[in-house]
Design brief:
Blueprint lengths: L1 H16 L20 H31 L3 H28 L7 H18 L1 H25 L5 H23 L7 H20 L1
Helix pairs in contact: 1-2, 2-3, 2-4, 2-5, 2-7, 3-6, 4-5, 5-6
Length: 206
């Protein structure tokens, strides 16, 4: 039990404080940067900060869900998805650095809240756990598409990162559905959207 606790604490610290690693190449990493004025760079940097926060939350959600899920197959699927989200964390951090943007100052708060939600989702039951995962990924996919539409023309470096993330999130949702995800009731889906709006609104600036 002590080893497990230490392992989970180590994961929290690595997510919040250590550089994330990626096995896949950075999407668009071989492309030249496009000329942007200062306002455009700040806007794209803020969008990347929002997505970086989303990946911080994803790590916490998957950690909480894996801790409390009952089915080993579901747990393995959660861990695989979490591994790909670590890559997203690395990609968004790299792009933020290129744009001169900083991470959100509220990352520890985002992590704690998402971890609590993930633990709760797992405790409710595996089909609802998977349903929460599926709905989360659907909403994230839509959110990423909105960011793709807001990028300055020619910013292929940011576009490649967000597009690959969008494809990965769609696959995570499909995996959850194949494993038996239950569809969340409408009030739960609306509450998730409302919480997401609060998070993205704050993360844009803070």
């Amino acid at each position: 039990m002590l080893d497990a606790i230490i392992s989970e604490l180590d994961r929290i610290l690595r997510t919040l404080a250590a550089p994330a690693r990626t096995l896949r190449p950075l999407p668009g990493g071989d492309l030249p940067d496009v000329d942007m004025d200062e306002a455009q760079r700040r806007r794209v940097g803020a969008l990347m900060r929002i997505n970086h926060v989303g990946e911080i939350c994803a790590q916490a959600l998957y950690q909480g869900q894996a801790l409390t899920c009952r089915d080993p197959g579901v747990r393995n699927a959660l861990k695989q998805a979490a591994h790909e989200e670590v890559e997203h964390l690395s990609w968004t951090a790299s792009r933020m650095q290129e744009l001169g943007a900083r991470p959100s100052l509220l990352n520890p708060l985002w992590y704690g809240g998402a971890l609590a939600i993930g633990v709760t989702a797992g405790l409710i039951g595996d089909k609802w756990n998977l349903g929460f995962l599926s709905e989360t990924e659907k909403q994230v996919e839509a959110h990423l598409q909105s960011h793709l539409d807001r990028l300055p023309a020619g910013d292929q470096k940011s576009w490649r990162i967000l597009e690959q993330m969008r494809q990965d999130e769609r696959e995570h949702a499909l995996t959850a559905q194949r494993l038996g995800a239950a569809e969340l009731p409408a009030p739960a889906r609306l509450a998730m959207k409302a919480a997401s709006k609060v998070m993205t609104g704050l993360a844009y600036y803070v």
